[in-house]
């Protein structure tokens, strides 16, 4: 899609935005209503209480207790999600902002999130919703059916489950994604990848693309920075690939925390040897956020070095994010080396991919281009 | 990894605690030594047996699973043993020196520092320098703790409260102690400040991860632990000095209080004067300690006092020449390499580098960095694009060159005024080799409020990039009064833009509260307001129409930009976000005003949320702790308590009045504090006979005064000229200060007992701490200045009535 089309799409979207703003902004409710409680999937009874098996935290909860992700609770001996049909954030985003560079470029995605997250990153951009519970946020009433109709109304091609952590509002994601598929929309998961195998396999059946945060390649840093472990995230990457979900990986380079070049090299080596050489890798620039305020933003020179290392280690599509004006945002054909997609910001300024193939040498450029 | 530093700190703190306890006779010296001998024995046995085991394992190649664990036990115990041995060495040092110098063991008589107590002691001087060092250390520590925590009022209040609680505890212990060895106590006091500083630095490194801003709980833990040595000692020493002075000389406790206060006042003034680019924080601390010792040595006339004074003077010169500040700042701001640290009158500027990329930290918060086109362009173009052909531009703060460069992309611009309060900030965000030719560029060095009130020029675009309303100081630039002043200097149809907080995907209730207060203040002044969500949330205001179609505006005007253009931004998404922001504004929320800084309340609540679940019980617990003297004390301590709370509250309210009218907070704050101290000193030193009846009526007088202040405060706010409101605000604090000082003098002078002195002092401090905390953090932001004065009045009356009732019951019982 060219710039003109992108603008046209946006214009059409705008017509609808002005037509029905009340739906999205109208009287959001602070309370979790009865219909927002749904029986949680992947629960098990154990001697110490009800266990949630969605993510590696495997919370075991007693009656009335709130989960670590703050949106699941035990009522009458059963685990319920409180985050079903009550998103607190609804937005329209260019798909490139997720970031997804090889998935339906230049389209707008309908983004939703409820409160809750299974990690507690020190630098969370969305901490006002990730570190709280749905009963403390202003929520819109948007059951899966309405998610789909709104996405259509706004001329979106996909729905993104994003911002906080979609793994924790699993049931809502799964039902919305199932309906979306039926109505011709694609589904995007923007996630920390901290999920157990079985729930992930089920979710993969309805998800088309995912951007997974690989926050560090050092287990100790992972725990300190996020409260989670590295291994389950690596496992998630492998499963998504096997399940043929389009995958892109984001690595936020945080000064002093995740900017060690040997670790970045080790990460790229692992990606290469596990078959991720064609998976786009985005190195993203950190800016002081949430609890990590006494740090400088990542120097662009460090991001450039990370980019070079990834290329040296055989990763074909490497990008730098959050640095306006960077040249590391174009896509090159890994066979003939020609520039196949030229980007500026979230816009494609030249596109040399036809039917998913390089115009110059006809080889396949990995991605979902239409 | 072995825990060398952790074990070291734990042992040092433990050692200091047992040593202090023994010095203050809480435990015996023998008990202290027995404790450390036992530790030495345990660590020795652990290290030795683990060592033997490891040797055998290595010799005979035993296959043992947990050999790593044993090795770590061996090493950790070894570390512990080494530290204990070093500490052990300190009390046997004389013995080893005598062996080395051949002096033998015969001289076992304790050395009394070479002087007799009578010769040495001059209570007046000692009280004065005690006040001096306490004042200096307090200012320096408060600055550093605020750098650590982010400088929110509630944190400031809580930190101050902690300071006072520990000093008060020291004072309380002094009431129980019989220690009269004031020579050594006064000698170790400055060492307490060094130990406090070391603990502060080490704890901030050990407890806080790199780059992390600690929440309120961590801040208080670090503050509490690091202040223990100094505050405990100073509180203890004051009461002991005060008691001994009243017993041995004619000095009444009230006089001691006046002397100590005067010392603090002198320190406050000196620190304020030398801070402005002359000396760094840590230089000042070092200099104050050395000065203390110079006075101490001269006053004591020790055996070699001339030589020692000379050495001290040389140290002073060395401290001034070799600045320790960059070194210490480097440790504190560990994530970057600090190349220069400057303490200006307004804050600490640390110029730093990370992997070759420069950044500037102001009070440990990042304010400027390389390659930030996104933010710089947003800061300028959203506003500039709204004006057809802008000519006169005013940029308030945010960094000089980079913003001026963006403004100069508009060919119509004729002049740019760049306004910044802190000259150091202009200097480090400006390249003096750049010669602006296409337009006139003027650098102004003034407070934004007073500049705007005094300016006669008209501007087409005014862009305010000042810090967000996180505290009462910065809140001024987000009030209706400020917006009205801005409008006065805007040309017809001019544009004004400010940053109103974060722009995350979801604005929390607290962010929405603060935003609504600011937005509603703008609504009363401008006819159109357009929110734009970028890196920050920008509010653009004007009486002309505003246009959200930024991408088209940039293209039409042909401005070359990296980020603010159609490649990154879409009109529709800007409009969508803008509508979303407007839809969450609470239109019923009253506007943010000078005397009702609502935005601060919500911003602070928002920041506090980062501290996690236990923040509210934690703060509540501190408040309850501070209320103890009021609830459990006798009538005298209750009255002292309410007088101190009233004074702290009035001081704060006067400070807000000064900021709001004269707009010059930093320098005048020093003046105000000096006036308060002087009032206290006058009250506590004056010989005027006041009838006991009148003394008991002090809370009632304070209550009526508070009512009068409540009624005049709105009038003061209306006066536009700077000097009259300042004089009135200074007058407001002096009477409560004199009354509080007199009460202290009468009550401590009634009966000579260190228990009474310490009890009253304790009540005084707790009252002041609670006053600062709740008034700055809660009452003023929620109810405004006028109502807070009324609440103070109510509190004073309540205190009087409680006393009457309790006395009445007491009389009945008798
Ligand atoms: S999804 Fe939530 S409730 Fe389930 S295990 Fe993870 S953190 Fe616990
Ligand atoms: Zn090709």
Write the layout of secondary structure elements.
The complex is a heterodimer of chains A (370) and B (814).
Chain A: H1 3-19, H2 21-25, E1 38-39, E2 43-46, E3 49-52, E4 60-61, E5 72-75, E6 78-81, E7 89-94, E8 108-113, H3 127-130, H4 144-153, E9 158-161, H5 170-182, E10 186-191, H6 197-204, E11 209-213, H7 219-226, H8 231-242, E12 246-253, H9 261-273, E13 281-285, H10 300-312, E14 318-321, E15 331-332, E16 339-344, E17 347-351, E18 353-354, E19 357-358
Parallel strand pairs in A: 8-9, 9-10, 10-11, 11-12, 12-13, 13-14
Antiparallel strand pairs in A: 1-6, 2-3, 3-4, 5-6, 7-8, 15-16, 16-17, 18-19
Chain B: H1 4-23, H2 29-60, H3 67-101, H4 117-120, H5 123-149, H6 153-176, H7 182-207, H8 216-248, H9 253-275, H10 281-300, H11 305-321, H12 325-332, E1 337-343, E2 348-354, E3 357-362, E4 365-369, H13 373-384, E5 392-396, H14 401-407, E6 415-419, H15 423-428, E7 440-444, H16 448-454, E8 459-464, H17 472-475, H18 480-488, E9 490-502, H19 509-523, E10 528-533, E11 536-542, H20 550-557, H21 571-584, H22 598-609, H23 615-632, H24 635-661, H25 665-685, H26 692-696, H27 698-718, H28 723-750, H29 754-813
Parallel strand pairs in B: 5-6, 5-8, 6-7, 8-9
Antiparallel strand pairs in B: 1-2, 2-3, 3-4, 9-11, 10-11
Helix pairs in contact in B: 1-2, 1-3, 2-3, 5-6, 5-7, 5-8, 5-9, 5-10, 6-8, 6-29, 7-8, 7-10, 8-9, 8-29, 9-25, 9-28, 10-11, 13-14, 19-22, 22-29, 23-24, 23-29, 24-25, 24-27, 24-28, 24-29, 25-28, 27-28, 27-29
The complex binds iron/sulfur cluster and zinc ion.
Residues 52, 54-55, 57-59, 67-69, 72, 118, 168 of chain A line the site of iron/sulfur cluster.
């Amino acid at each position: 899609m060219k710039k003109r089309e992108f603008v046209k799409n946006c214009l059409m979207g705008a017509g609808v935005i002005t037509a029905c703003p009340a739906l999205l902004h109208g009287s959001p409710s602070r309370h979790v209503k009865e219909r927002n409680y749904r029986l949680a999937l992947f629960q098990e009874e154990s001697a110490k209480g009800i266990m949630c098996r969605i993510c590696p935290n495997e919370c075991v909860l007693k009656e009335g207790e709130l989960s670590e992700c703050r949106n699941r609770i035990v009522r009458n001996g059963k685990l319920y999600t409180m985050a079903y049909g009550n998103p607190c954030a609804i937005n329209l985003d260019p798909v490139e902002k997720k970031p997804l560079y090889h998935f339906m470029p230049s389209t707008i995605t309908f983004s939703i999130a409820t409160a809750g997250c299974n990690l507690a990153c020190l630098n969370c951009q969305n901490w006002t919703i990730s570190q709280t519970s749905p009963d403390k946020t202003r929520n819109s009433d948007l059951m899966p059916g309405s998610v789909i109709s709104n996405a259509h109304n706004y001329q979106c091609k996909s729905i993104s489950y994003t911002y906080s952590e979609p793994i924790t509002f699993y049931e809502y994601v799964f039902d919305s994604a199932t309906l979306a598929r039926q109505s011709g929309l694609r589904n995007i998961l923007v996630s920390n990848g901290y999920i157990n195998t079985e729930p992930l396999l089920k979710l993969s059946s309805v998800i088309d693309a995912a951007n997974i945060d690989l926050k560090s390649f050092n287990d100790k840093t992972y725990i300190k920075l996020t409260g989670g472990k590295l291994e389950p995230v690596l496992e998630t990457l492998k499963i998504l690939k096997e399940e043929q979900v389009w995958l892109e990986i984001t690595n936020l380079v945080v000064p002093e925390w995740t900017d060690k070049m040997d670790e970045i090299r080790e990460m790229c080596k692992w990606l290469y040897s596990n078959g991720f050489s064609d998976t786009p890798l985005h190195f993203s620039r950190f800016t002081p956020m949430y609890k990590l305020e006494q740090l400088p933003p990542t120097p662009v020179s460090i991001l450039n070095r990370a980019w070079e290392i990834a290329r040296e280690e055989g990763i074909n599509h490497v990008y730098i994010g959050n640095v306006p004006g960077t040249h590391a945002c174009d896509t090159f054909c890994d066979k003939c080396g020609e520039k196949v997609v030229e980007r500026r910001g979230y816009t494609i300024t030249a596109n040399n991919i036809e039917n998913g193939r390089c115009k110059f040498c006809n080889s396949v450029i990995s991605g979902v281009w239409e | 990894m072995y825990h060398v530093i952790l074990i070291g700190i734990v042992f040092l703190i433990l050692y200091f605690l047992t040593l202090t306890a023994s010095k203050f006779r809480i435990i015996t010296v023998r008990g202290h030594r027995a404790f450390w001998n036992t530790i030495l024995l345990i660590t020795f046995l652990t290290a030795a047996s683990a060592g033997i085991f490891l040797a055998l394992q290595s010799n005979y190649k035993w296959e043992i699973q947990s050999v790593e664990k044993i090795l770590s036990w061996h090493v950790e115990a070894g570390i512990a043993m080494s530290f204990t041995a070093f500490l052990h060495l300190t009390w046997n040092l004389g013995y080893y020196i005598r062996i080395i110098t051949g002096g033998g063991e015969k001289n076992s008589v304790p050395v009394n520092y070479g002087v007799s107590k009578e010769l040495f002691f001059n209570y007046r001087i000692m009280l004065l320098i005690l006040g001096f060092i306490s004042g200096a250390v307090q200012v320096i520590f408060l600055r550093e703790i605020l750098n650590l925590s982010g400088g929110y009022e509630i944190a400031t209040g809580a930190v101050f409260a902690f300071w006072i609680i520990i000093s008060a505890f020291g004072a309380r212990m002094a009431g129980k102690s019989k220690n009269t060895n004031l020579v050594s106590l006064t000698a170790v006091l400055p060492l307490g400040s060094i130990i406090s500083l070391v603990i502060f630095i080490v704890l901030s490194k050990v407890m806080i991860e790199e780059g992390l801003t600690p929440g309120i709980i961590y801040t208080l833990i670090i503050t509490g632990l690091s202040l223990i040595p100094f505050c405990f000692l100073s509180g203890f020493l004051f009461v002991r000095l005060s008691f001994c002075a009243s017993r041995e000389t004619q000095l009444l406790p009230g006089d001691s209080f006046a002397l100590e206060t005067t010392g603090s006042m002198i320190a406050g003034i000196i620190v304020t004067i030398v801070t402005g680019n002359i000396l760094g924080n840590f230089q000042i601390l070092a200099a104050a300690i050395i000065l203390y010792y110079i006075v101490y040595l001269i006053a004591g006339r020790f055996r070699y006092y001339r030589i020692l004074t000379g050495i001290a003077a040389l140290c002073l010169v060395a401290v001034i020449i070799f600045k320790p500040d960059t070194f210490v700042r480097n440790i504190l701001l560990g994530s970057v390499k600090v190349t220069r640290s400057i303490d200006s009158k307004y804050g600490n500027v640390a110029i730093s580098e990370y992997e070759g990329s420069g950044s500037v930290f102001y009070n440990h918060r990042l304010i400027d960095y390389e390659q930030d086109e996104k933010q710089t362009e947003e800061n300028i173009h959203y506003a500039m694009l709204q004006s057809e052909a802008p000519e006169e531009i005013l940029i308030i703060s945010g960094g000089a060159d980079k913003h001026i460069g963006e403004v100069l992309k508009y060919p119509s611009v004729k002049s740019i005024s760049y306004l910044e309060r802190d000259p150091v900030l202009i200097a480090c965000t400006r390249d003096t080799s750049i010669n602006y030719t296409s337009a006139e560029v003027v650098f102004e060095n003034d407070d934004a409020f007073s500049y705007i009130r005094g300016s006669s020029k008209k501007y087409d675009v005014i862009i305010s990039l000042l810090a967000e309303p996180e505290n009462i100081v910065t809140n001024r630039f987000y009030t209706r009064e400020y917006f009205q002043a801005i409008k006065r200097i805007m040309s017809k149809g001019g544009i004004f833009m400010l940053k109103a907080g974060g722009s995350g995907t979801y604005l929390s209730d607290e962010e929405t509260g603060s935003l609504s207060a600011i937005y509603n203040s703008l609504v009363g002044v401008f006819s159109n307001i357009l929110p734009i969500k970028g890196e920050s949330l920008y509010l653009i205001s004007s009486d002309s129409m505003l246009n959200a179609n930024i991408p088209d505006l940039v293209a039409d005007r042909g401005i070359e930009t990296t980020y603010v253009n159609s490649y990154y931004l879409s009109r529709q998404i800007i409009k969508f976000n803008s509508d979303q922001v407007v839809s969450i504004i609470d239109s019923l929320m009253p506007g943010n005003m000078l005397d009702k800084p609502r935005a601060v309340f919500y911003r602070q609540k928002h920041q506090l949320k980062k501290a996690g679940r236990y923040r509210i019980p934690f703060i509540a617990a501190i408040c309850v702790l501070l209320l103890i003297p009021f609830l459990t004390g006798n009538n005298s301590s209750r009255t002292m308590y309410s007088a101190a709370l009233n004074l702290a509250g009035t001081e704060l309210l006067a400070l807000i009045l000064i900021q709001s009218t004269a707009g010059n907070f930093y320098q005048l704050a020093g003046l105000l504090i000096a006036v308060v101290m002087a009032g206290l000193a006058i009250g506590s030193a004056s010989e005027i006979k006041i009838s006991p009846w009148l003394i008991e009526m002090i809370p009632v007088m304070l209550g009526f005064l508070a009512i009068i202040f409540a009624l005049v405060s709105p009038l003061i706010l209306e006066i536009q000229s700077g000097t009259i409101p300042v004089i009135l605000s200074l007058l407001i604090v002096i009477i409560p200060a004199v009354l509080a000082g007199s009460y202290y003098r009468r009550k401590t002078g009634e009966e000579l007992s260190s228990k009474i002195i310490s009890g009253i002092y304790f009540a005084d401090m707790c009252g002041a701490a609670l006053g600062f905390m709740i008034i700055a953090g809660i009452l003023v932001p929620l109810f405004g200045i006028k109502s807070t004065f009324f609440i103070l009045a109510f509190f004073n009356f309540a205190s009087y009535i409680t006393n009457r009732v309790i006395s009445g019951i007491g009389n009945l019982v008798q």
